Here is the input.
Amino acid sequence: MLTRKLSNGVLMPVLGLGTFKVGEGNEAYDTVLEALKLGYRHIDTAQLYGNEASVGKAIKDSGLKREDIFITTKLASSKLGYQEAIDELNISLEKLGTNYVDLYLIHWPSPSDELNQQTWKGMEVCYEQKLARAIGVSNFKIHHMDAILKIAKITPMADQVELHPGLYQLPLQNYLNKLGIALISYGPFMKGEIFDQNGPYYQTLNQIATKHQASVAQVVVAWGLERNIFMIPKSVTPKRIKENFDSLNVKLDSEDVLAINNLNRGKRVYTDPDNNSFVKQA
Ligand SMILES: NC(=O)c1ccc[n+]([C@@H]2O[C@H](COP(=O)([O-])OP(=O)(O)OC[C@H]3O[C@@H](n4cnc5c(N)ncnc54)[C@H](OP(=O)(O)O)[C@@H]3O)[C@@H](O)[C@H]2O)c1
Here is the structure.
């Protein structure tokens, strides 16, 4: 599996399986097992998804070595805080049936910089105690990142954000590149909007797909990979899990990347991180 190094040298597979809305129990178990059989070695979960136990069981039953699989989990947005970051990771580890995760992220920023800073200090403890091989954040905009960098002993190693043809996140990527922070895309298929033949994205994506004998989904994943973005498409459908994995074989030209970049319209299909009312406020 193709990997790239995080700033601390830890290797992260460039393509992973997303598991948001993959139900705890058979659905998560079967989906993760199927993905691992197909060659995926990176699974993205979160406390909020409620499926860590089944994800962990599938990993265990896959027969693969723990060190050959990259597991990401995330601290729930209602549980921000110094001690919470540590305690909650221990709960996740218990559910996942492992004694470390490969990447631990703050799922959403609080509007309170101070709370994000305290939480980050807890994340650093998790890293120092080797409960997480790498630590980072999710849904952090530049201003959130600036605030935690004021107190960080350890610069976050990754930021996972909504990123797709409608929201290319180039300014954020340029900012993160300067700091050596990896960018991970979520929601690459825009909740299905990229497949809408009457929508603003399909025609360009389909032209590029035809040129490369690929699917529209594969073109979007390949576009992210070409931009050095880590991609974690979600599917519970075996045919699509394979199709998405095979994006690794699709190589876009620079003009394809540019054409997809030009589809950007600052469109979010998920909540704006500055307006998430479910997040602990202070
Ligand atoms: N950090 C965060 O706040 C955050 C937020 C959202 C998501 N995420 C992470 O990012 C992952 C991916 O994002 P996402 O789940 O929002 O959505 P996504 O990967 O953009 O899209 C998933 C949807 O597309 C369908 N699909 C998958 N592959 C397809 C294909 N090849 N052709 C056609 N349809 C396809 C899936 O259907 P089926 O499953 O029915 O096949 C599902 O409905 C999540 O699972 C999660 O791990 C993180």
In short: The chain has a mean pLDDT of 97. Residues 209 and 219 are 6 Å apart (CA to CA). The chain is about 40% helix and 15% strand. The pocket of NAP is lined by residues 18-20, 44, 107, 138-139, 160, 186-189, 195, 217, 232-237, 240, 243-244, 270 (CB under 6 Å).
